[in-house]
């Protein structure tokens, strides 16, 4: 039996841009992606702390150390610049493996979206 478990989490970053005219996704600072073990095109869930919205989309790699957290396309309707979000990805794995798996969780500075 396989189950889905938390694989990666970027805890409490600030939305820096919302680009409604883009085709969709979230752009994340490449340094944060690397630190959280998230890759480009990976499916992520975004939880907006300010308004309770939740959405799933895929990741586009942003400029390293830019602090960029940009919701693109329809996702831009789910958050405003300045909102705090949590970004999570999940992995499917064997039940026994899941019991010992440890997710990668990072806690960037929510003012700058950079690692501390």
Describe the structure.
By secondary structure, the chain is mainly β. The chain has one domain (2-106): Barwin-like endoglucanases (Beta Barrel), CATH 2.40.40.20. It is 11% helix and 47% strand. It has two helices and eight strands; from the N terminus they run βββαββββαβ. The protein has helices at residues 30-36, 95-100, and strands at 2-14, 17-19, 25-29, 43-48, 54-62, 69-72, 84-94, 104-106. It has an eight-stranded mixed β-sheet. β4 (43-48) and β5 (54-62) form a beta hairpin. The longest helix has 7 residues, at 30-36. The chain starts with a strand and ends in a 10-residue tail after the last strand.
Write a concise keyword list for the protein shown above.
8 strands; eight-stranded mixed sheet; globular; 116 residues; mainly beta; 2 helices; Barwin-like endoglucanases; single chain
How many beta-strand elements? 8
How large, in whole angstroms, is the Cα Rg? 14 Å
Number of domains: 1
Query: Remind me, CATH topology?
Result: Barwin-like endoglucanases
Based on Cα principal axes, name the global outline.
globular
CATH class type: Mainly Beta
Numbering strands along the chain, what is their spatial order in the largest sheet? 2-6-3-5-4-7-1-8
Beta-strand fraction estimate:
over 45%
N-to-C series of helices and strands? EEEHEEEEHE
Mean pLDDT across the residues is: 96
Name the poorly predicted regions: none
Q: Treating each run of at least 4 consecutive H or I residues as one helix, how many helices?
A: 2
Structural class: mainly beta
Main sheet: strands, sense, barrel:
8 strands, mixed
């Amino acid at each position: 039996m396989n189950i889905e478990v938390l694989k990666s989490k970027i805890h409490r970053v600030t939305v820096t841009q919302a680009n409604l005219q883009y085709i969709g996704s979230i752009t994340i600072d490449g340094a944060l992606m690397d630190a959280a073990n998230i890759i480009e095109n990976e499916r992520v869930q975004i939880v907006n702390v300010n308004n309770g919205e939740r959405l799933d989309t895929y990741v586009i790699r942003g400029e390293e150390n830019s602090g960029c957290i940009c919701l693109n396309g329809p996702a831009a309707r789910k958050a405003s610049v300045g909102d705090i979000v949590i970004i999570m990805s999940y992995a499917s794995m064997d039940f026994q493996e899941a019991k010992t798996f440890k997710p990668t969780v990072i806690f960037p500075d929510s003012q700058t979206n950079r690692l501390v």
